[in-house]
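All the exercises in this workshop are built on plain-text protein records. A record pairs a protein's sequence with a compact description of its fold. Read left to right, the backbone structure tokens trace the chain's path through space. Once this layout is familiar, the rest of the handout is easier to follow. Here is such a record, shown just as it appears in the course material:
>
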Amino acid sequence: MSNPPPVPRPFLHPLHGLLLAFPVALFVAALLGDIAYLKTVEMQWSNFASWHLVGALVFGGFTLLWALILAIMRRHTPIGRRARIYAVVLAGMWLAGLANAFQHSRDAWSSVGMPGFTLSLVSACLALVAGWIAHGPIREIARS
């Protein structure tokens, strides 16, 4: 009889995955708020985007901290490289979101415009990439 293949451990702890869900959703919501503001020029959309950014930065900060600890703890394991890439993507996401929050603190049209929209797009894309890295398939290196 052959042994069943071992079930791979998930890349992230389930609570870490739950924390990651917030910045992914909130950065995308901020991007959608910026798009709505650019289409309607209704200032409330920019306010919504600002609040989404604050929530994304709070939860993203905790997620980033946990990812850095994960990258340090798993640096000598087969998924250590993936953990480092994940932490770098989260750091880029958080820094782009922070710059975007500073951009949104300005008045009226200068709060969004193209720089704010670009930063929203970058932070949302990096959040989605982080989610893909975190929840994508794990390919372990076969040892021979």
